[in-house]
Structures are given as structure tokens and as C-alpha cells.
Request: fold
Amino acid sequence: MASQNIYILGIESSCDDTAASVMHNGRILSNVVANQKIHEEYGGVVPELASRAHQQNIVPVVAQALKKANITKDQLHAIAFTRGPGLMGSLLVGTSFAKSLAYGLHIPLIDVNHMQGHILAHFIDEEGFNKPPFPFLAMTISGGHTQIVRVDNYFDMTVIGETIDDAVGEAFDKSGKILGLGYPAGPEIDKRAKLGNPKAFKFTKPRVDGLNFSFSGLKTAILYFIQNETKANPNFIEENLNDICASIQYTIIGILIDKLKLAVKQTGIKHIAIGGGVSANSGIRQALKDGEQKFGWTTYVPKFEFTTDNAAMIAIVGYLKYLEGDFAEQNVAASARLKI
Reply:
């Protein structure tokens, strides 16, 4: 990408993970993430606790990222940080830290849209991983987001479909809560789904026009279904847990694939890139791979550590913006509802 030696520090603090990453000319030298276990007790992220934990974690996480990359802060060319979208208190911690560090080192500050980070994670130089050619369709699926984006260039992106209520990650977590599983429930549902029959129970898919998604109706349908079945048989959940998980996962994957098929049909674009924490789900990965045979598309999935919230994806956007000289002013403000 570039002949010079460019070191970028990426900082990510949009939700409950404090992350820092050092990139050298498009390659990742370190990618450090501090998870916040405290939210498991509450069955979801508590914003106030998240921002406090970021304040405790950010200095050691950045120090560790620099140490692992084997460079000093004086070798950095720019600081890239997540400006939004996300939880306001969490974003403020990362934004303030990045601004102070860039100011103190007299180097450029680069603001990054978290959603662009998930998409451009595909352009991190990583052996064995192909980069999607432009134009491509990006499906970003996470705890807070579900979007289909048409990507014509690094910074020419158009959202062509998104959720009108819950994100896909919420659908997994809320279904898990109904079943009495821990938080986050997605990985547990995925694990159990492998042992169950995906067609044991039928849930209706919500009807939503165009390329938009809706998951709140499905969550309600699952709730009523479980309530009715447990009335008749109090042991219904434990006797059928694997089949219930498999059926829920099968329905959610069906919703995602149906919309992707429609997006491919409408745009004529057959390169599909996937990102976001829920893309770790083995059923979704398999369905996308199967789609290569069935629908003739090509899929791109980044390395696992670059799919969930991480700072490597912020660093790559920072690097690409650095090459274009696209820097932020010191008065740049965090934005909880930042759009692509």
C-alpha cells in the first residue's frame, strides 16, 4: 500500500471492550482487547459501568499494545479512534484519550466510524485472507447492528438495508435469556444448535419490505412459544434445548440469507463481505459458504479476532485515511448515533 514506514495506533471503546492496536503499513503488529466481565451479572451491558471500566483499562491497554508491537509512542505517525456509533460514555473515554495523546505527541488525529471499521477490517494485510474487490456488499452483524452496505470504495459506502428494531445479536441474546442461558447467549446457542434439529420447531419469519430487517417479532414469537410449551410441560426447555436452539438459529440465518439473496439480485454484486461479532457464528459462516455453490457468490470473512469489536479495524481505517491526509481537528466530538 505504501512505501514509507507508517505506524498507526488504533483505539476502540464504543461498547464494553477497551482495545488498542498498532499497525505498520497495513499489517497488524499488536491487537489488545480488555473484556469487561462485569456485565455478565446483569445480562447486558450497563453503560455507566462500561465507561468506568474503560477509564481503568485504557492506559494499560495502550501501553501493552505499544509494548507488543515493540515500538515507542514517539514512533507513531497518527492516532485513530472510534468516534461513533456506540455508547456515549464509552466513546468519550476513547475520544478524550486519543485527542490528548495526539496533541501531546504533535501527530495527526483520525476519527473513525465504527461501522466502517467492521467493513474495512477486510483490508488488513493478513496471509491467507483475500480482500474483496470493489464494488462489494458488506453484511455487518453484531450485538448492536445489522446492516447491508454497498461498498464502492474505501470511503464510498451506502447503507441499503438495516434493522428497524433489534439487531441480530440482540435476537440471539434475548432468545437465550428466555431459555435461561447466560449472557452473551449467542455462542451457547451456536454450540447447542450443532447438536439439535434445525427443523424441530417452526418460527415465522417477519415480513419486512426491501432489504431492511426486523427481529423483535421473532423474539416475541419465541417467548409465547416457550410460555405455551412450558405450561403443558414444565420440563420442555431442558428436554428440547438443543432442538430449540437449532430452530432459532436456523430461522435467524434464514432471515439474513433471504435479504442477502435479494441484495445480490437488486445490485448484481456477487462479492459478499461479512463482519461484526455475530459473524463468528458457525451456522452463519456455513450458510454463506453454501451460498457460494447455490447462488454463485463469493464470500469474504476476516480473521476471527478482527470480527468482534477490536482496534485493528480502527487502525486500518486510520491508515487508509492517513494515506489520504484525512485528519480530524482537536474539537472533534464523539457521536453515539454516527451514520456511515
